[in-house]
Amino acid sequence: MTSRPDPTLFAALHGELAPHPAPPGGGADAYGLFLARSSALGWLDTLWGMNDAGRDPAPGSRAAWFQVAPLGGAVPVQPFLACAGEVVARLGTLRLDALRLLLPLPRGGGPAGGAVLGLLQEAGWFAGGAEGAAVPVRVTLDSGAAADGAALPGAVPALLPWLRGFKQTVFDCASVTAGEPDEAGAADAAYGPAPVDALWGGPARHRIVVTGGLAEWSLDALGWLAAFLAEGVAAQGVSGPLLLTATASSA
Amino acid sequence: MRPTLRTFSLALGIASAALLGTSQSVSAASPGPVPAVAPASARAGSDGGLVLQGTGSSAEGTQEPSAAEVCVFETRGDYVHVSSSAFEASGHGWWVNGNCPTTTAVVTVQLQEYYSDGVWRNVGSKGKSTVRSGGGSQGRATGRGPCKSSAVTSWRSVVDVDLVGLSDSPEKLVTAGRDLACRL
Known about the structure:
The complex is a heterodimer of chains A (about 250) and B (about 180).
Chain A: E1 9-19, H1 30-40, E2 48-54, E3 62-70, H2 77-91, E4 92-103, H3 114-122, E5 135-142, H4 151-154, H5 156-164, E6 171-178, H6 183-191, E7 207-214, H7 219-235, E8 242-248
Antiparallel strand pairs in A: 1-3, 1-4, 2-3, 4-8, 5-7, 5-8, 6-7
Chain B: H1 6-12, E1 25-26, E2 51-57, E3 71-77, E4 81-82, E5 88-97, E6 104-114, E7 120-132, E8 141-146, E9 149-163, E10 167-168, E11 173-174, E12 178-183
Keywords (chain B): Signal
C-alpha cells in the first residue's frame, strides 16, 4: 500500500493559436481529438489513461492543455507531447511560446539506466532537422514546497556534469543554477496559475534553472529534453514530481 | 429506458459480466470507517477496463427481443483525477453508438471513495447529461467531488448509460481505482 498518489502528466501549450475554419456544426474539441488520436496510435490505456483536455474559453496565452494518468510505471512524456502536438495541429496553427509541464520523475534512474540509453537512440530523430534550427532555451524546474522538494536545489552541482556526460546532440547544456526567489511569481504572471498544488506538491518554491541550446523549438524536442532532465534529476535522488516551464529566448 | 435485456444479453455473451462485482455501494458514510487507500484486490474496475459493451432494443414490455432486434453500444469513462484548475476530483463518462436506432443517451457518472471498511461509497455530485455518441467536452457527463484535504485516497467512478427511447442492458461501467491526493 502506497502513501503517494498515482502520477499525473499535464501539459499546457502557450502561444498564439490561429484556428482552422470550423466545419458546419462545429469540430471536435481537444478532449475528443486527444482521445481519438491516442487510441489510434495504441497509446490509450497502455501508456496512459485519459483525464481531461481543453482550450481556455477566453483568448489568452494558453492555447490548449492536456492531462493524463501515466500507466505501468513509465513517464511517456515524448508520446504525450507528440499526441498533444498533433491535436493542436488539427485545431489550428500554433506559434508555441512556452510549455508548462507537470512531470513525474522515473524511479530508480541513474547514469547507466536503460531509459537514458533509449533517449540517446531516440535522439536520432533530430538528426534530420533543418540546419540552423537550434535555439537557446531556458527551462525552470520546480519541486514545490514540500520538505523533500529541497533536494532539487541540492542537485545543482551534480546535475551539470551529468547532463554533459552523455554523447548526444539534442541539448547542449550551458548552465544549471538555483532559481531566483521571484521566479514562480513571474511565471504565474506570464502563464497563469500553475496546476493545483495537490497534483504536484505545490505551491512553487524549490527550483532550478537549466539553459542551453536545443536542436529545434518543437514539442518533439521539448519532450526529449523533459525526459532527459527527468532522468538527470532522478539520478540525483530527487523524487518529484516537478513543474517544468520551458521558453525559447527567441520566442 | 430500463432494462429488460439482462438475461438475453448474457445469453448472447455480448455484455460483460457483472460489473459491480463484490463492491458495496452505499449513499452515506457511517461514523466509523474513514477514507483510505484501497488494496490492489479492490482497485480493479470492470472487465473491459474503461469500456463496457452493452446491448439495446426497441422491443417493448418484458418480451425478449430477437437477435435481429438487438443493437450494440459501449459505455466509456476516464480515470477519476484531480482537476488541474480546481481542488476537486472529477471523472467523465460517455457512450459510443454501434448500431442502435437512437441518437442520444442519458449518461450518469457517480464518483466513489474507498473506505477503511472495504466499502466504496458514493460521494460528491452525480453528473447527468443527455448526449450524443462519441464523447468530447460536449458529449460527456462529469461527476465531481470536492477535496477537503490532500490525504491520499482511492477513487473510482460508476458510469451508466440509458439509451433514449430504447431498452438497454443494466450493467454499469466501474472504472479502475486511482490513488489521488484528495479526500472528501
